[in-house]
Amino acid sequence: xxxxxxxxxxxxxxxDTASVLPTVPYQQGxxxxxIPDWARITWEMLPAVQQAGYLKVPxxxxxxxxxxxxxxxxxxxxxxxVIMLGDADDExxxxxxxxxxxxxxxxxxxxxxxxxxxxxxxKWQTTASLVKAIPSLGNLKVxxxxxxxxxxxxxxxxxxxxxxxxxxxxxxxxxxxxxxPLGDIDLDKYAIKSIPGLQQTPIRQFxxxxxxxxxxxxxxxxxxxxxxxxxxxxxxxxxxxxxxxFGKSEKGDPMVGDGYYVSGSVVRGDSTKFxxxxxxxxxSYLELxxxxxxxxxxxxxxxxxxxxxxxxxxxxxxxxxNGGNEPTGRLVYGxxxxxxxxxxxxxxxxxxxxxxxxxxxxPPFQQKTCTPYFIGPVPWIxxxxxxxxxxxxxx
Length: 395
Hints:
Helix content: 10-25%
Low-confidence stretches: 9-15
Order of helices and strands: EEEEHEHHHHHEEEEEEEEEEEEEE
Number of strands: 19
Mean pLDDT: 92
Number of helices: 6
Structural class: alpha+beta
Shape: elongated
Distance between the termini: 29 Å
């Protein structure tokens, strides 16, 4: 059984960090609001995940997935050390990047001069997997690629037939020599360029690249979201008015059905399925207005608080994680994050929002499977009454 949950931690009080996120003004008619400036926001810049959690995947599933996506994280840990590349590759296409691509975007400081130890996926590569990812590597002499010479030669691994031949010849005559992981040697001794072609090869070519955390790829957490291989959407394809904030004293009304809400679950296909608050249960919400007036499709609709309402989420093998629950909300900027309302202050007329993340795996020859959006909350941009609220398409 796959297990995992969000661990509530009273010590992880909400930090007022979302206010420092770069935004740009957005206006329609006389109405104004703020939208995220994806050209300046990076993974490194996102506020910390406010609550601890974990995912534990049994060995049988790890074999189906091709790698182990299990992990745990603490309250106030940054999301770039919680999210693996495979979790959100469909949205951001991390695997399309090469290390060179990232370095050009971020202009990595030459003083940083990362080594092979800084590239997370290198430690579980073998000589055989490197040649598979970088075929031209096989044509080089073993002694020209020092890390491979090291991993083949340590503890008597280097057969005599490998000492003067190419890497490909060595592996053909001694297949077992190619199975030792590079993590067995001191990778901090070698610059990234010590493996020719490593910097120019798309990350997805490497063995188990999906299990690499974002902050284990030099510079990736400094890439603006607008410069990802698949940039984030603006969310402005659907915009409403934040009409009235209703607090915790509100309860779900049996006469107000799913069609009155713009928040809900994320279902297979990654679209938002609207879900009404449960009758009689706490239901703080933001009531919306429509820019075209009372006849508009958004007029009177409700965005329910994810702090009040949990809904079913996820699909496939991983759907049962966190009890199958996620905070109600919607996909505003695409499926990389779910945006949930997490605070309602009637006295100031303010609705607070947070991002929630999930873990996804795409097993070979099978459909993608995802946990509910249960990693969070990551404090986000608040909205005041009478301002614009960005809704996106819900996909």
